[in-house]
Amino acid sequence: MPASASTALLTDMYELTMLDAALHHGTEGRRAVFEVFGRRFPATRRFGVVAGTGRILEALERFEFSSDQIDWLHDQRIVSDEALDYLRGFRFSGSIDGYAEGECYFSGSPLLTVESTFAECTLLETLLLSILNHDCAVASAASRMTIAAHGRPCVDMGARRAHERSAVSAARAAVIGGFGGTSDLEAAKRYGIHPIGTAAHAFTLLHSSEREAFDAQIALLGTGTTLLVDTYDVTEGVRNAVEAARAAGGELGCVRIDSGDLVAQAFRVRGQLDAMGATTTKITVTNDLDEYAIAALGAAPIDSYGVGTRLVTGSGVPTAALVYKMVACEGPDGRTRGVAKKSESKSTVAGRKTAGRVFDADGYASEELLVAGGTPEEGLAELKRQGARPLQVPLVRAGQIDAAAWSPEALQTAQERHLRSRNELPYQAWRLSEGEAAIPTRYAALS
Amino acid sequence: MPASASTALLTDMYELTMLDAALHHGTEGRRAVFEVFGRRFPATRRFGVVAGTGRILEALERFEFSSDQIDWLHDQRIVSDEALDYLRGFRFSGSIDGYAEGECYFSGSPLLTVESTFAECTLLETLLLSILNHDCAVASAASRMTIAAHGRPCVDMGARRAHERSAVSAARAAVIGGFGGTSDLEAAKRYGIHPIGTAAHAFTLLHSSEREAFDAQIALLGTGTTLLVDTYDVTEGVRNAVEAARAAGGELGCVRIDSGDLVAQAFRVRGQLDAMGATTTKITVTNDLDEYAIAALGAAPIDSYGVGTRLVTGSGVPTAALVYKMVACEGPDGRTRGVAKKSESKSTVAGRKTAGRVFDADGYASEELLVAGGTPEEGLAELKRQGARPLQVPLVRAGQIDAAAWSPEALQTAQERHLRSRNELPYQAWRLSEGEAAIPTRYAALS
C-alpha cells in the first residue's frame, strides 16, 4: 500500500494522544459505544440526507499505519513507543451500524454507531466525521435542488469551485441527492456516474467566428450536442447554432445559456428556437444556480440545470455539523453504562440509540424515534411495539466490512432509497423556506 | 505511478471534448494565454490571499494519463482515438507565471498566467481552479482571523468539519494566512506544520472521574499539557486540573474551554487560576470561533485560539470564485491577439496582464495596476515607469516545474510574505466589517 493511500493520518492528533494516555493508564481496552449525530439543523434544512457511508467503508479498508507513518510519529514524538506498537498492527476489529445511504435523518439520528474498545473507537473519529460532514452537506443541498427542479434533470458542474478531491466526493453525494450526472471525470470513473460536458467560451474564442467553432464541435460530436450560445450575442448565437446543426444535416440537440437573466433569456431563446422550427432543441442553463434560482426558473422553458458552486459548497451549509460522541462505556467493574457530557449547550443523551421512523395514518413520517439504552435487540423490540420502521443496518461486523455498500450499484440504490425516504416525509419537508425540521425527534428510554 | 496518484482526471469532461474538437479541426496547436483571476470580492473580503500555487506545481508533476485512465476514456467514448493518442503522452510543456504564495490579491489580479497551445492550456483549467479556489478561500479567511487575534496564536482544528483531503490542504492554506499549527496529522507530516492536540471529552468520560482522566493524561504528557475542563462543571474542572498537575509536581500548562459563553468563562477561569496561584497556566478556547468571535474575545484573558468549522469552510466564503479565461490567442494568420468574452455581466479584459502594486507616499499600497497587452517585458517596463512593484514570478518554464515552490521551506516563506504584503495594505484592509476592496484595480492598456 503506497503511503498516500493510507487514510490513517487523516486524523486529529488528539485521537492518538488519548489512545496513548489510555494505553498508559490501562483503560484503552474498555468497551465503548460512540455515535455520529447532529444536534440541530440550520433553519434552511428541513431534513438531512445520509451520504458518505460507502466512502467510509472504503476508507476504513485503508485505515492502516504504514511504516513511513509510524517512523514520522516516532520522529515527531507524537506518541510513546507503546502506542507505536499498538498502531503498527492496527486494524479496526469492532462493529459499525448506521443509516443506509440516501436515508433522511433528523436531529439526534445516530447516522453511525461504532462499538469496540475505547482505543479503536477513538482512532476513527476524525475520518468518520470528515467524510460524513462533507458528503451529507452536499447530498442535503442536492436534494433541495432536485426538489426545486421538479423532475427536470440536474447535473453537477462544481468541480472547479471545490477542492479537487472533495469535488469527486461531492459528485457522488449529489447523485444520492438525486443528481443525474457530473462534469468531473474522476468521479465518473470512480463511481460510475454519467459524465457530461461539451465546450466552454474559450472554444468559441479560439476560432475566427462563433459559427466556425460550432461547426468544429458538431463535426466531432454530431448535431445532438449542446452548443454554448452566449459568448458574444445570444440571439446571434442561437441562430448560428441551429444553422450549424442544419448544415450538418440535423437538428441541434441543445443550447446552453451561462449568463444574464436566465428567466428572460430562456423565454426569448425558446421563442427563437420555435420560430426557427427547432422545436426539439433543448435549453440548459448553468449560471450560479442554487435551489432558489432553480425554483424561480420553474415556469421558464428550461429542460435541465447544471449546478456548480452552490452544490459543492452545500448551498450555504458547507458542513453537516455532525459530532461523534461516546454514549456508553465499560467501567472498571466491567459493566457498560450510558455516559453523557453535561457542558452548557453541548449536552448529549446517554446510552446507545436504536432508531426508527414512525408514520401517521396517511403513511407520512411523523417522528424520529430514538430508543436510548438497552441492547440493540431490546431497542428493536421497542421500535416494533411502537410501530416504527427500523433505520439502522449493519456495516461492519468484527472488522469485516460490507463491501457491497460501496459498489457503483450501491450508489444507484442510495439514490432510489433517498427518493423513497423523501417521499415519505410530510409536506413541510419540501419547502425551501426557513423553518423547523420536517419531523420532531422523540427519545424513549429503556429502563 | 498508481492510478489514484494521477491528477489528470480531476478535470471537467468538456476540457477533453474541446481538446478533441480542436484536434479534429486543426486548431489545438494555436498559442494561447489564459489567466486565473477573480471578478470581484464578496463584501466581507477586503483582499484575497494567494494560496495553492505550491500544490498546483505538485499536482502538475502528476498530471499524466495512466493506461487505466486512457482505457476508461476509450470505453466510455469520451473522446476520439486521435485525442487518446494525444493524451497518452501528455506532459504540460508550456509556461506558468503567477503571484507568489502569500501575496495579497485584488479584483482582476492574474494569480496565474498559463501560456502554451490551446490544448495544453485547456486541459489544466479545472485542476488549477479547484486548487486555487479552495486554498485561497481558506487562506483569506485565516488571514482575517489572525488579524482579529492580534498576535495571539491561532491553530487549525477543522479537519472533522471538512472533506478528509481538503482538510489537509486547508491546514496548509491556514499557515499561509498566519496560523501556527494544525490538529491534522497528515497535514503536519506532509507540509511540516506544527501538530497540536491533547484530549477530547470522551477521554474524561472514559474514566471514573475527571481527576482520574487528568492524572492519566499528565502521567503521559507531563504537567505542561492542555487539559479540557468543561466536560462536567468548569469551576470543578479547573480545580481538578490545577491539583492534578501539582500532585504530579508541576504547574499546569494550559486549560481548554470548548463550550458556553467564552468571554465570561475566560474571565472566571482566569480569576480562578490566579486565585489558586496558577498564574502561568494559560487558557485556550475552541468553540465555533470565527474572526468576529475572535475579535469579541480580544479583551478577554485568552492566550490562543483553536479554530475549526469556520476556518475550513472559508468563514462564509467557501470558494474564492476565481475563473480561468483565455485572454489572447493565435489566429489562423499566426498572429496572437487579445480576446474577450462579451456576455452580459461576465465580460473579460483582453490581453495578457502584467501586474504590479502601486504605493503612496507613505508606503501603503494604493492600487493594483494591470497592464494589458504587449509582451511581459513591455509590461514590466510600463510597471517600472509607473513605479509599481511587479507581482508575478516564473513557476513553470517549458514544462520545467520550479520544485522549490512547494517545499516545506516555501510554506514558511509564504507565511512571511503574506504578513509583509498585508502590512503594506492601507488601514481599511484590516477591517472585518463589510465594504470595498482595500485598494482599487486599474487597467492600463499597452498600445
UniProtKB/TrEMBL annotation, chains A, B:
Family matches, as InterPro entries: Aldolase_TIM, N/Namide_PRibTrfase, NAPRTase_N, Nic_PRibTrfase-Fam, Nic_PRibTrfase_pncB, Nicotinate_pribotase-like_C
EC identifiers of the protein: 6.3.4.21
GO molecular function (one): glycosyltransferase activity
Residue stretches making up the Nicotinate/nicotinamide phosphoribosyltransferase domain: 154-264
Residues of the Nicotinate phosphoribosyltransferase N-terminal domain: 9-133
Pfam families xref list: NAPRTase (PF04095), NAPRTase_N (PF17767)
Catalytic activity, reaction form: 5-phospho-alpha-D-ribose 1-diphosphate + nicotinate + ATP + H2O = nicotinate beta-D-ribonucleotide + ADP + phosphate + diphosphate
Superkingdom of the organism of origin: Bacteria
Modification after translation: Transiently phosphorylated on a His residue during the reaction cycle. Phosphorylation strongly increases the affinity for substrates and increases the rate of nicotinate D-ribonucleotide production. Dephosphorylation regenerates the low-affinity form of the enzyme, leading to product release.
Keywords: Glycosyltransferase, Ligase, Phosphoprotein, Pyridine nucleotide biosynthesis, Transferase
Pathway: Cofactor biosynthesis; NAD(+) biosynthesis; nicotinate D-ribonucleotide from nicotinate: step 1/1
Function: Catalyzes the first step in the biosynthesis of NAD from nicotinic acid, the ATP-dependent synthesis of beta-nicotinate D-ribonucleotide from nicotinate and 5-phospho-D-ribose 1-phosphate.
Similarity remark: Belongs to the NAPRTase family.
Xref: PANTHER family: NICOTINATE PHOSPHORIBOSYLTRANSFERASE, NICOTINATE PHOSPHORIBOSYLTRANSFERASE PNCB1
UniProt name for this protein: Nicotinate phosphoribosyltransferase
